[in-house]
Specification:
Elements (H helix, E strand, L loop, with lengths): L3 E7 L5 H7 L5 E6 L2 H11 L3 E5 L8 H8 L6 E5 L5 H6 L5 E4 L3 H11 L3 H10 L1
Parallel strand pairs: 1-2, 1-3, 3-4, 4-5
Length: about 130
């Protein structure tokens, strides 16, 4: 099975070990960016499957970064993790690729399910290949 590409933009400056402890790391290629500008510039180079924007304790609005990520149509799943909902972010939540959440077990389950689909899906894919 091809490894999923996970792209994390962290306003929180958490180390990569933190994410390895919470994500099914065996099945991913993981990139962590602490500079949103550099992260946005590298999106079209990496072509990630999942983007996580970690907005906890952000000193400035994460909305410009979120808009730029959502403008990249090749990204199929975007998770914006923040303790508070920005009013403008609720307007963008119409985008089906976007999940707004605080950091909790439910969002981790969603991300890990995308990383490692169920065995049933893998069996169907292997039979059709």
């Amino acid at each position: 099975m091809k490894k999923k590409k996970i792209f994390i933009i962290s306003y929180n400056n958490l180390p990569i070990d933190f994410w390895k402890a919470h994500l099914d790391y065996k099945n991913v290629e993981l990139w962590l960016w602490k500079s949103p500008k550099h992260a946005i510039n590298n999106l079209p180079i990496i072509y990630p499957d999942i983007v996580i924007i970690d907005g906890y304790w952000a000193k400035k609005s994460i909305l410009p970064c979120l808009i730029k990520v959502l403008n990249k149509k090749f990204i199929s799943n975007v998770f914006c993790i923040s303790p508070k909902e920005e009013s403008d972010a609720r307007v963008i939540s119409i985008d089906q690729r976007l999940s707004l959440s605080n950091f909790n077990n439910e969002v981790l389950k969603k991300i890990n399910k995308l990383i490692k689909p169920s065995k049933k899906i893998n069996q169907i894919i292997s039979r059709t290949a």
